[in-house]
Amino acid sequence: MSATLTDGELTVLGLLAEQPRHGYDLEKVIEQRGIRAWTALGFSSIYYVLDKLARRGLIEATGAPASAKARTTFRVTAAGSDLCAAATREALAALTPVRARVLIAMANSPGLPEADVTTGLAQRAEALREQLKDVRAARSGQEPLPSAASAIFDYSEAMLNADLTWTETTLGALAEEAAMDKYDIKKAHKPLYSPSAKDFTVVDVPELRYLAVDGAGDPNTSAAYVNAVEALYGVAYTLKFASKKTLGRDFVVGPLEGLWRADDPAVFAARRKQLWEWTMLISQPDWITDDMVQAAVDEVSRKKDNPALESVKLRTLAEGTCVQILHVGSYDDETPTLDRLHHQYLPENGLTFNGDHHEIYLSDPRRTASAKLKTILRQPVRPS
Q1: Same domain assignment for residues 196 and 291
Q2: Residues whose CB falls within 8 Å of the CB of residue 258, separated by 6 or more in sequence, listed in order
Q3: Which residue, 179, 200, 215, sits at the end of a domain?
Q4: What pLDDT digit, counting tens, does each position of 304-356 carry?
Q5: What is the mean pLDDT of residues 231-247?
Q6: Hey, which bits of the chain come out as E strands?
Q7: Which of 169, 252, 271, 346 could form a disulfide with 184 if both were Cys (CB 3.0 to 4.6 A apart)?
Q8: Which pLDDT tens digit goes with each residue over 22-38?
Q9: Mapping DSSP to helix (H, G, I), strand (E, B) and coil, where does residue 51 land?
Q10: Does residue 256 share a domain with residue 169?
Q11: Could you name the domain of life of the organism this protein comes from (predicted)?
């Protein structure tokens, strides 16, 4: 039955059931009792609610005002009293679902800098402390209180204290995480992940470990490619959380990388993607083991059916001497750079191919304009 009354309507109806009141009286009582701490009821909306209740026959004016400027006093009708009682009985037993907006924010927070998240939560904690002060001041100003009013204040304080405890605990966990020595391959091997966009550079790439999935075909149209990337990220993040929880060792999930191969390297410059074979990769710290990977694969498989998951393996890659450059722009605009690498730089420096063409995707194509995509183009080489 309470579905026929909004929270605001039930609040106003209950206050009028106590005694007849006009709008200004209602505002004073709402303010004095701190009702806005648990019910959204603005001053302007009081008159809107009164009008709705009157039109439904739940309240009525006690008599015509003496003048146009006088305030109209309302009282509850018999129907209003019955509905208020029934709705109150139902509301006493009903559970209110928690839909705090901060939970949506926490779900989205991985997309923000850590400093923004901690600043926002710190501001939230301070606001909660101020709100607690206000509620306690309102309570103190009205004591001694009847048991029902005390229960209302108890609930308000309990909810605010619970929110404050959660906020402070979350802040503490974030601070602890920030203090943890978090492995980041882009920092641990900075020369490999920050090449020049102007000139080719030669780097020595040590043995590195990756989650890997093999496949073939045009990445723009192949379902196998989409499944492979989704599987890699699912396992990578599961490993990150498992490592932090069980080993106390955290790491930044590395960028997506890809090895690309074909019988004729010219198909890359020609962008004949249907002839490409590939191995998609995400780097892993050296403490991640095969057993941990399999456990992560099993966990992700229980949540989502993805045929690529069974192909996710831990693989060691030793590329040695490589030539690389940063490409800024669309993936399809790599052709001139690859042509210059293959037909100018390598021959002029007495070098030839010594492994798969390697690309490292530093940008998220879902959030970055194609003209601003940053991709490292790496080619293992040896003397020709």
Answers
A1: yes
A2: 278, 279, 280, 281, 358, 359, 361
A3: 179
A4: 999 999 999 999 999 999 999 999 999 989 989 999 999 999 999 999 999 99
A5: 94
A6: 21-22, 59-61, 73-76, 201-205, 208-216, 256-261, 277-284, 313-317, 320-328, 351-353, 357-361, 374-383
A7: 252
A8: 888 898 888 887 777 67
A9: helix
A10: no
A11: Bacteria
Burial (CB count within 10 angstroms: exposed 0-12, middle 13-18, buried 19+), residue 132: middle
Same domain, residue pair 270 and 194: yes
How many C-beta neighbours within 10 Å does residue 175 have? 12
pLDDT confidence of 259, banded at 50, 70, 90?
very high
Backbone angles phi, psi at 74, to 5 degrees: -115, 150
On whether residue 34 sits in a domain, the answer given is: yes
| Measured distance CA(99)–CA(97) in Å, rounded | 6
**Residues 6 or more apart from 188 whose CB is under 8 A from it?**
none
How far apart are the C-alpha atoms of 32 and 36, rounded to whole Å? 10
- Alpha-carbon gap, residue 256 to 331, rounded angstroms: 14
> Who wins on pLDDT, 226 or 262?
226
* pTM: predicted TM-score of the whole model, two decimal places: 0.57
Look up residue 325 and give its two tokens: 């450059």
pLDDT at 377: 97
Closest CA to 52 of 3, 6, 2, 1: 6
| Pair 202, 322: CB distance under 8 Å | yes
User: How many helices (H) does the chain have, and how many strands (E)?
Assistant: 14, 12
Task: For residue 374, report the phi and psi dihedrals to the nearest 5 degrees.
Answer: -110, 120
Rounded Cα distance, 190 and 21, in Å = 71
Query: Are residues 162 and 83 located together in one domain of the fold?
Result: no
pLDDT tens digit string along 9-65? Answer: 998 999 999 999 988 889 888 888 777 767 777 767 888 899 999 999 999 998 766
125 with 67, same domain?
no
Q: What is the pLDDT of residue 345?
A: 96
75-91 mean pLDDT: 91
Tokens representing residue 343 in the block: 């037909």
Query: pLDDT value at position 2?
Result: 44
Name the residue range of residue 31's domain: 1-96
Of 96, 115, 149, the last residue of a domain is 96
